[in-house]
Design goal:
Layout (H helix, E strand, L loop, with lengths): L1 E2 L8 E3 L17 E5 L5 H11 L7 H11 L3 E5 L4 E7 L6 E9 L8 H15 L4 E6 L4 H9 L3 E2 L15 E6 L1
Parallel strand pairs: 2-3, 6-7
Antiparallel strand pairs: 1-2, 3-4, 4-5, 5-6, 7-9, 8-9
């Protein structure tokens, strides 16, 4: 069981491939597990996306296609009752991967869940041969920028105005693995 960095010691993420159990968690606290997505998770992934991106969530059909095409690159955080976050990446292509989306439920933000998701995904991408990971982020999203910088991402060029259409700027960031 890996405690959340910067957390208050009352939540933990377990990685089944590393620990296999939730032993040692505080009584009454559900252990959080990072695992691959399943088809039955898609309604919860849609809920998370709508919470995080109310002005532009992925439609269900896109999430369904991500599951089918990129399922090994869509990880979720599960407490056994509900999902509390996800990260979606592309498989390495010419040694580069993209993080397409990262979200954590509002109740768990600031507890290291996003960092754990990203760390797990970056490790998987590295093991698959990625040597760089790219992403874009809203330049006004200070918490995401702080997380990405803490993970070693650096801006790659200037802010791209209208990246996703009028009024949708993005900062491209890059991490060398």
């Amino acid at each position: 069981m890996t405690p959340f960095p910067g957390g208050h010691g009352d939540r933990a993420v377990r990685h089944p491939s590393r620990t296999g159990s939730a032993a040692g968690r505080p009584p009454g606290k559900a252990a959080l597990e990072i695992r691959g997505v399943t088809e039955t998770d898609l309604p919860d992934v849609l809920r998370l996306d709508r919470e995080a991106f109310p002005d532009g969530p992925y439609p269900y059909f896109a999430l369904r296609q991500f599951h089918d095409a990129l399922g090994d690159h869509l990880l979720v955080v599960d407490d056994g009752r509900a999902l509390h976050g996800y990260v979606l990446a592309t498989p390495p292509h010419r040694a580069a991967s993209w993080i397409l989306s990262l979200t954590v439920s509002p109740a768990l933000r600031g507890n290291g869940v996003g960092r754990e998701l990203m760390t797990e995904m970056l490790g998987r991408l590295r093991a698959e041969g990625a040597t760089e990971v790219l992403l874009t982020v809203d330049p006004a999203n200070d918490s995401a920028l702080t997380l990405y910088r803490a993970l070693g991402f650096a801006p790659s060029g200037d802010v791209l105005q209208d990246y996703f259409g009028p009024g949708e700027p993005r900062q491209r960031m890059r991490l060398a693995l």
